[in-house]
Design goal:
Layout (H helix, E strand, L loop, with lengths): L1 H16 L7 H6 L9 E2 L11 H7 L9 H8 L3 E5 L2 E4 L1 H20 L2 E3 L5 E3 H7 L1 H5 L4 E4 L5 E4 L4 H9 L11 E10 L14 E11 L2 H22 L4 E4 L9 E8 L5 E6 L5 E3 L17 E16 L3 H4 L2 E3 L5 E3 L1 E8 H12 L16 E4 L11 H14 L7 E3 L7 H11 L3 E4 L10 E6 L4 E6 H9 L5
Parallel strand pairs: 1-19, 4-8, 18-19, 18-20
Antiparallel strand pairs: 2-3, 5-7, 6-7, 8-9, 9-17, 10-11, 11-14, 12-13, 12-14, 14-17, 15-16, 20-21, 21-22
Helix pairs in contact: 4-11, 5-9
Bound molecules: adenosine-5'-triphosphate and magnesium ion.
Length: 475
Amino acid sequence: MERLLRRWRSFSGPLLSRCPPSQPPLCRAYHHPPGRVKRLALSRFFQPQNLREDQVVGLESRVSELTCKSHRLMLQTGLIHPAGPGCYHYLPFTVRAMEKLIRMIDQEMQAIGGQKLDMPSLCSAKLWRATGRWQLMGKELFQLQDRHNKEYCLGPTHEEAITSLMASQKTLSYRQLPHLLYQVTRKFRDEPRPRFGLLRGREFYMKDMYTFDCSAEAAHQTYDLVCDAYGRLFDRLGLRFVRVQAAVGSIGGTMSHEFHLPLNIGEDTLTACSNCGFTANVETLDPKQPNCPVCQGKLAETKGVEVGHTFYLGTKYSSVFNTEFINAQGKPSLVEMGCYGLGVTRILAAAIEVLSTEECIRWPRLLAPYQVCLIPPKKGSKEEMAIEPMETLYDNIAEALPQLQGEILLDDRTHLTIGNRLKDAKKLGYPFVVIAGKRALEQPCHFEVWCQNTEEVVFLPKQGLLDLLRKVQVV
Ligand code: ATP
Ligand code: MG
């Protein structure tokens, strides 16, 4: 420790002393004079850009698996950077979008009584052997040993961990149930074919919820409650989804549904009956039976990307760990469980895949990393005089609309033309891009506003712009 401290002092000393005493280091980093609005300047962002097309393709482990649109766009715009097969650095813009998505997930889960916790990624092999999944999951588990030769895996999902945690609560009463516990953490799976960027990684973020009820009936009600919350989340994101009957796979249980975004690059085939509304993942149907099992109607197939999965588990896990509660008769009884996953990083990428054009990212409005990008004119151009009004506009928006503070970016790379910076802004998909061009020098001054989600371009005076931005929702 002492050694570390000494090294830190000798490292940090010269770094800090480079800042003149009149300018504390924090203000320099945020690029704003003390006491004034904090302006976020694009030139200061860490955002590796402009990976060329051939480099993007070269990053794929197998050339035959050409990448998809969201993967390509996310690499080109510096949203992610490859770190190894199926592993990515999530760069600052992505982290902002992800934080927004997680906030929305928190809102929906907590609205139905969900409580957030956080479990270790290092999961003991003992628990996984108890359920037989150490063997069952096989090579998909990242396995490791500690210095005492104790075996672990890096958690691909947490049914064992949470069920044994609940089993340790010996005095759990029926009065306390249901419990809906969830976390948003990294999951690790040694996927045989990691591909399509964040759509199928070997390390990714998942929201996983586990529910504990006193009866099968109550557990089914909880199941419906969580499915409805998933529906509300996708509605708020503006993403059309389909919910289908699904296979239980290695998680197990007796009933399961998947939530899919319809996409041609999807690895799942879904089927729907236009007659009775029956929907299923084809893997749950008998291939010899071409018609709808409910009404014998005709089935139509589409491809989908699975973004969520719900399971009714019954007592599959609670019976292994003896996870009991004290029922109304004062007797111990096994808890009825459900588990519910949402692929956080996969939802981000799948949303980009659904909404974007080949050239430009489009975000679900609420997830855009920044809502507004301001582009002042180029230094040395005829419109140079409008640079200052643009900076004032930044402060005016931030002061008049406090909800947008931290959501406005100033593209201060004024050595570049407006056209070049607009191209970047369109590619990154800020919902609103505001340009100070020729008309910014008129009286009254007008700004050019690109409303990217509606594909409109309008010229507005300052007040008109404030009125437009006042309606922007943020999470
Ligand atoms: P898939 O069939 O796509 O491999 P899965 O059925 O194995 O997924 P679940 O165990 O149901 O996945 O995990 C819950 C959610 O986690 C999935 O619905 C998906 O959104 C997300 N997810 C699963 N695997 C990955 C992955 N490799 N990369 C990114 N997200 C994933
Ligand atoms: Mg699944």
